[in-house]
Amino acid sequence: MLKKGKDSLFQKFLAKKQTKKILKIFIIIQGLIVYRRGIDMRVTNSMISNSASAHITNAKNSLLKYSEQYTTQKKIQRPSDDPTVAVRSLKLRTTYSQLTQYAEKNVKDAMSWMNTTETALSNISKKFDNMKSYLNQGANDYLKADDRKSVLTTLQQYVNSIFEDEANTDYSGRYVFTGYRTDTSLLFPENTDKLSYQIKENFSYDSFDNITVITGGANYDSTIANGQQYTDKTAKKNEVYQLRLAYDNCSKDAFAQAGTNGTSIAISFTYKDQTTGKDTTEVYAAAGYNGTPAAKGNIITRSSTDTNAYEVGDNEIVYLYDTGEVLVGKTKYADIQTKQADFSVTYVKNDFEKNDIRPEMYFKCTAYDSVNNKTTDYADPSDQEIEYEINYSQNIIVNTQAKDAISTDIYRMVDYISKTVKYVDEVETKIDEVDKMISNTTDKDKLATLNSLKTSLETERDLRSKVMTDAFGMGLTMIDEAGQKVSVATSELGAKYNRAQLTYNKLLDEQTDSEDKLSENEDVSLTDVYINLTQADNLYQASLSATAKILGNSLLNYI
Fold first, then answer.
1. pTM of the predicted structure, to 2 decimals
2. CA atoms of 349 and 253, how far apart (whole Å)
3. CA 23 to CA 29: how far, in whole Å?
4. What is the C-alpha to C-alpha distance for residues 21 and 14, in angstroms, rounded to an integer?
5. In the predicted model, what is the mean pLDDT of residues 222-249?
6. How many CB atoms lie within 10 A of CB 156?
7. Are strands 297-298 and 279-285 parallel, antiparallel or unpaired?
8. How far is C-alpha 509 from the chain's CA centre?
């Protein structure tokens, strides 16, 4: 029988307060001979050795397990340690990775894109505001020639900056205002005479401007001795209804490619027939038109330098290809207004200069590359929306198209103002020259003739000055309209940005929650693992110590 006295091995182990596992090992090793119900059981050295080795191995594995946990601070080191934890971790890590992709990449990239766009739109709006002050100066008829030149130069600089700097803005090498074609700039990077475009612009019945055109005008002629001849040549004003196309320097020739309507210009009016209630289309075109439906009337093609350029019959439509103007007579204009006809103008432009706007960014068009003999059709660029996925099943449109935010009309308007200023400068120069001739002339008849010329020129100057100030006033109205367009685009962009910001904040919360769940599933408590590690180490050391003592004994030690 095992001795249970004060100095027995059994009591010593109890004194050391070892765990139940140590006690089990002790009992097994010590139980060499057990008497039970008179049956004598023999335990061999081999059994003792195997049992001790197994328990030492278990103790060592437990020590290694908690040692790894303490080092990595993770519950498991490999899936086989706990398949349930491993599967749950895989799902949680996938969720966390997706949330991180949305929050740190997609949403931030989308917000950066919109920030870049908003900055450009804000700069455009500020430049519009600055342009207003100069347009107001020009709308007052008190500026001298040098002042007008300075004002005009400043306006041109602002327009160039709007298109070349702001409208051509890029984000990380991607142009923000060009729809799907983010790799293509809004403007031509260089002059090109190898591209020809057939462009289709859409208008509404109220797109025409009622403008005053000055025709005629006297010029000094040494052969004229009768002042009445100068009086007869005095400039006159003519009221016309004008439509400015997006481009000037257009072609008077037909588009060179097969399959087109075969003309330099065609206008298609669409309106609702009051009798039938059905949509009706009327086409007017220059000579050579072969489209469908057949042309109802002809368009007269002229150059703005022609003597009768701005003389438009009541039922006529005139196309000034060099200035990109469409003029309609009074009766035709009234008919368009009565029918409230929307219409499209299809025309041809060949030569583009550096920083001209690419037609395909604003209009449906067909381009022909004469170098490569290649024809490219461009659809209407509307609704070229670039979407970012910013959350599960949640997309947001990040881009703003140039055609929806930046009006090309301001480009043409400043060109028009420039021409009116030029005409005023020219007639004032003529008056100055006549004044010099008058100051150097003593002949009464010649003086009378020159004074008649001066009077005629002064009349022309007054007419042209009125046209010029009206042009500046039209510019103010157009800037207001263009500014409103920018404001609407900015407001829409702001709404999308706020939505992205709310999504971003939500993603951060979800990311934190997912991270907490992942930590709860994978991470260990350092306090708990330290206790477990200490216990495992004690168990291992005790197992080694007990085994050493037991295996060093013989049967004589237990008799």
1. 0.78
2. 9
3. 10
4. 12
5. 93
6. 15
7. parallel
8. 28
In sequence order, the β-bridge partners of residue 357 are: 187
474-529 pLDDT per residue, tens: 999 999 999 999 999 999 999 999 999 999 999 999 988 887 787 676 666 667 66
Strand runs (DSSP E) across 330-455, as ranges?
A: 342-349, 364-369, 374-378, 387-391, 394-397
pLDDT at res. 50: 75
For 334, residues 6+ apart whose C-beta sits below 8 A from its C-beta are none
Establish how many alpha carbons lie within 13 A of residue 358's alpha carbon, considering only the half-sphere containing its beta carbon.
22
> What would be the CATH architecture of the domain defined by 76-180+388-523?
Up-down Bundle (1.20)
Could you tell me which residues come within 8 angstroms of residue 258 by beta carbon, excluding any fewer than 6 positions away?
A: none
Cα atoms in the 13 Å half-sphere on the side-chain side of 315: 3
Q: Which DSSP state fits 88?
A: H
Amino acid 489 reads A
Structure tokens at 15: 């004194």
pLDDT in tens, 151-162: 999 999 999 999
Tokens matching residue 442 = 């003593």
Check residue 238 and report its DSSP letter.
E
295: helix, strand or coil: coil
pLDDT(433) > 60: yes
What local confidence, expressed as pLDDT, does residue 1 receive? 39
Domain extent listing, the chain: 9-73+524-558, 76-180+388-523, 191-383
Q: Give the span between the Cα atoms of 12 and 558, in whole angstroms.
A: 16
Task: Give the Cα separation of 135 and 473 in Å (integer).
Answer: 7
